[in-house]
């Protein structure tokens, strides 16, 4: 009831596309009734969780906030959802987001914009904006989002909460609508590190339905968080990241001051030369749009999805009409860009080059983690902006500069809500560790919070 009241009182924020009110109440009552006989409680017993509308929940709507899937209903549970349910969680609803998880402000949804609870005139970030606002505004205890290039960490930064993107392959993508399959990961929003660690423990691990999931055993993240002794860490930051011209001066100043407090606390903190920084955003947008153009080819209006009412005998026209009317502008822009970079005349100039950049980044990352436990940076170069203020796609893409690195290299990243900007908006620090090293990521984060 607490969270349902939160949702009812904040409908103007538009965080949810659909709320499963009766069902959630029934499940809560059922869990309550079962309580007296329980020997030990399941790890997420009664925990109220919202899911981004790109994650399948059987017999519930699933649209990726797109017109093309308006009436689609999930046929099965995503592995992450199945594990939440098995752990006793209550799923309270599906959350608004940018269409097919493409965007940074939650202004690209067929279900309307989402507003930041800290200032409803500002964007919540994206693409998992609804999931972030739902936690920020106490409409659920945890949310599941998806992070292809920052879509969990960036809205967490804008909303003043924690946002974790696990390593690529830590959490099964089965039942997650694909945007760019070699980048996508399900991530977690929460207010407390312990909650996030516990949820990760529940959803992570081997899955026969996703061959890219790691078979490495899942550590007891939440327990490790309790026992890990504080120790000095070796922490790197990228020189070029803090010198970047797009970085807001107040964020720069507070991040530098934070780095000094870390040194004072006994950690070894060092600037590392990172001359590839300017290439991460172009490489990300070439590779993700290429993967998206292929992944989204399945929405043709035949098997499922929106079908245009305009009659035609020509199959190509039929596809064109369904897709032109069903997809929004940003998604179309990316399908076209992705098709272009994959086209025979341009493949080597763009796609192959971007793959080379990705490989160089991975090599560089491996070298850095040979010497350091973690890399820190601002999560986003500027705080949440006003709704409608930014319309130039290139400008919006460039703001992904600190987050896309983790997806290009497959490493885990977390945004921690540590600071307030002079505008009054919160902003965060991002921590990244080597691949599959969520234990260090979480314990280091704990020393920061
Ligand atoms: N802003 C990035 C993009 O639009 C991030 C998206 C995401 O992580 N899903 O692609």
Explain what you see:
With 449 residues, this protein is an alpha/beta fold. Helix content is 39%, strand content 14%. It has a domain at 2-227: Amidase signature (AS) domain (Amidase signature (AS) enzymes, Alpha-Beta Complex). It is built from 16 helices and eleven strands. An eleven-stranded mixed β-sheet has the order 1-3-2-4-6-5-10-11-9-7-8, sandwiched between helices. Helix 3 links the parallel strand 2 (48-52) and strand 3. It is globular, with a radius of gyration of 21 Å. It binds glutamine. It catalyses: L-glutamyl-tRNA(Gln) + L-glutamine + ATP + H2O = L-glutaminyl-tRNA(Gln) + L-glutamate + ADP + phosphate + H(+). This is Glutamyl-tRNA(Gln) amidotransferase subunit A.
Number of helices: 16
Roughly how many Å apart are the termini?
A: 29 Å
Uncertain residue ranges: none
Instruction: Classify the beta-strand content into a percent band.
Output: 5-15%
Mean pLDDT: 96
CATH class of the domain at 2-227: Alpha Beta
Q: Name the CATH architecture of the domain at 2-227.
A: Alpha-Beta Complex
- Structure summary, number of beta strands: 11
Shape: globular
- Radius of gyration computed on alpha carbons: 21 Å
Q: Which compounds are bound in this model? A: glutamine
Order of helices and strands: HEHEHEHEHEEHHEHHEHHHHEHHEEH
According to CATH, what is the topology of the domain at 2-227?
Amidase signature (AS) enzymes
CATH superfamily of the domain at 2-227: Amidase signature (AS) domain
Main sheet summary: 11 strands, mixed
Helix content: 25-40%
What order do the strands of the largest sheet run in, or round the barrel if closed?
Answer: 1-3-2-4-6-5-10-11-9-7-8
Structural class: alpha/beta
Domain Amidase: 1-442
Catalytic activity: L-glutamyl-tRNA(Gln) + L-glutamine + ATP + H2O = L-glutaminyl-tRNA(Gln) + L-glutamate + ADP + phosphate + H(+)
Enzyme class: ligase
Pfam family, one: Amidase
């Amino acid at each position: 009831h607490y969270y349902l009241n939160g949702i009812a009182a904040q409908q103007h924020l538009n965080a949810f596309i659909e709320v499963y009110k009766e069902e959630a109440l029934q499940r809560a009552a059922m869990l309550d009734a079962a309580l007296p006989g329980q020997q030990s409680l399941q790890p997420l017993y009664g925990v109220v969780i919202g899911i981004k509308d790109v994650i399948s929940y059987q017999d519930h709507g699933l649209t990726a906030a797109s017109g093309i899937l308006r009436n689609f209903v999930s046929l099965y549970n995503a592995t992450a959802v199945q594990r939440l349910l098995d752990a006793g969680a209550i799923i309270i609803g599906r959350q608004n987001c940018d269409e097919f998880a493409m965007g940074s402000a939650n202004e690209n949804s067929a279900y309307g914009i989402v507003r930041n609870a800290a200032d409803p005139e500002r964007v919540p970030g994206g693409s998992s904006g609804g999931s972030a606002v739902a936690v920020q505004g106490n409409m659920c205890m945890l949310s599941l989002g998806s992070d292809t290039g920052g879509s969990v960490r960036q809205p967490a930064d804008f909303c003043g909460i924690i946002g974790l993107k696990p390593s690529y392959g830590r959490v099964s993508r089965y039942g997650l609508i694909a945007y760019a399959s070699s980048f996508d990961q399900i991530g977690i929003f929460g207010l407390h590190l312990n909650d996030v660690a516990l949820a990760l423990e529940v959803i992570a691990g081997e899955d026969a339905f996703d061959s890219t999931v790691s078979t490495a055993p899942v550590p007891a993240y939440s327990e490790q968080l309790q026992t890990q002794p504080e120790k000095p860490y070796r922490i790197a930051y990228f020189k070029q990241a803090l010198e970047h011209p797009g970085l807001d001066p107040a964020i720069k100043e507070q991040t530098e001051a934070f780095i000094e407090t870390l040194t004072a606390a006994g950690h070894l903190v060092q600037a590392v030369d990172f001359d590839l920084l300017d290439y991460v955003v172009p490489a990300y947008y070439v590779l993700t749009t290429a993967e998206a153009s292929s992944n989204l080819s399945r929405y043709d209006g035949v098997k499922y999805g929106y079908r245009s009412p305009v009659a035609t005998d020509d199959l190509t026209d039929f596809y064109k009409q369904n897709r032109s009317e069903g997809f929004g502008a940003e998604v179309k822009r990316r399908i076209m860009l992705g098709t272009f970079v994959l086209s025979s005349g341009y493949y080597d100039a763009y796609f192959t080059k971007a793959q080379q950049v990705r490989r160089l980044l991975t090599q560089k990352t491996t070298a850095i983690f040979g010497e350091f436990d973690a890399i820190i940076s601002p999560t986003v170069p500027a705080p949440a902006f006003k709704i409608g203020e930014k319309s130039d796609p290139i400008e919006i893409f460039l703001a992904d500069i600190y987050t896309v690195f983790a997806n290009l290299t497959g490493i885990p990243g977390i945004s921690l809500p540590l600071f307030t900007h002079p505008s009054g908006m919160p902003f965060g620090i991002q921590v990244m560790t080597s691949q599959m090293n969520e234990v260090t990521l979480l314990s280091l984060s704990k020393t920061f919070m």
